[in-house]
Design brief:
By secondary structure, the chain is mainly α. The chain contains 6 helices and no strands. One of its GO terms (cellular component) is endoplasmic reticulum membrane. It holds the Pfam family Reticulon.
Length: 139
Amino acid sequence: MSPCFLSRVSLSDLQSTPGSSSSLCVLPSFHLCRMLIDKDVSIPPETFRKHVDASLTYINRGLKQMSRLFLVEDLVDSLKLAVVMWLLTYVGAVFNGITLLILADILLFAVPPVYEKNKTQIDQYIDVVRTQVNATVAK
């Protein structure tokens, strides 16, 4: 956006300057981003409907899950949600929202290479944690 904006402002300035003999100003329709302006960016209705239909199942599943949690259909799951939301208030008190987004972005690109390098060790620890959690839940 900045290069297009700067070129339009500079060309308008050159055109409005008396005695200007710029070769670019001879063309009244010259625009740096003309190729992009003329490009068709419309979405065909069939493509839009296909993506809406595909996302509709996920939206309905999410709405059903939210209503199940908020209307306390299962007491344990609703209590888990309440505890997570309560803990997130403390996270929100410590971190700003943009800080959380920056940290999530860093982790998004840092975790996969670390996992690929240490896959066997991480999988061993995950198995240990999983067996302890299963043993605790079974009691």
